[in-house]
Amino acid sequence: MAGTDVPMAIPRIVIAATRVEEMASFYGAALGCRFEPTPAYGTTLYRTELRGLSITLCPNSIAGVVAEQSRHQMTFGVPDVAAALARLVAAGHTAAEPERDERGPVRAQLVDPDGNTLELARTS
Predict the structure, then answer these.
(1) What pLDDT digit, counting tens, does each position of 47-90 carry?
(2) Architecture of the 12-122 domain
(3) Helix (H, G, I), strand (E, B), or coil: what is residue 106?
(4) Which of 62, 90, 104, 105 has the most CB atoms in a 10 Å sphere around its CB?
(5) Backbone angles phi, psi at 16, to 5 degrees
(6) φ, ψ for residue 22 (rounded to 5)?
(7) Domain-by-domain residue ranges, the chain?
């Protein structure tokens, strides 16, 4: 695999968001974690730690990203797509019908509160 000899990791991701609180709720449900509000820079950031990855949701008014939607597209590997979708639906979000195989859902796509695409993909 290309790049496997490069000692690199991604320790932190910052996502610019317009509807920060709704994004914290959505991604908390999607990832099965809780984003903690953190006062900073005269506003509130939302942060979580997930398997050594620090994820911060930052108001776009600070980040200054100029885009209407699809500022990012992410795929999250999950062992059970059905369980991840159930968490999102229980939190009030909707998803398109997932791709399936004989073992159940393989992949599902959703749109977060800011209009970005999120894909859940089965890892096993």
Answers:
(1) 999 888 899 999 988 877 776 666 777 888 888 888 888 888 88
(2) Roll (3.10)
(3) strand
(4) 105
(5) -75, 130
(6) -65, -35
(7) 12-122
Question: Which residues 6+ apart lie within 8 Å of 109 measured at CB?
Answer: 95, 96, 117, 118, 119, 120
pLDDT digits (tens, 9 = 90+) for 72-84: 778 888 888 888 8
Instruction: Tell me the C-alpha distance between 35 and 92, whole Å.
Output: 17
Is residue 31 helix, strand or coil? helix
Spatial separation of the C-alpha atoms in residues 11 and 65, rounded to whole Å? 21
Residues 10-37 pLDDT 10s: 788 888 888 999 999 999 998 889 999 9
Please name the residue that has the structure tokens 């953190």.
Answer: 38
What's the rounded Cα separation, in Å, for the pair 50 and 92? 22
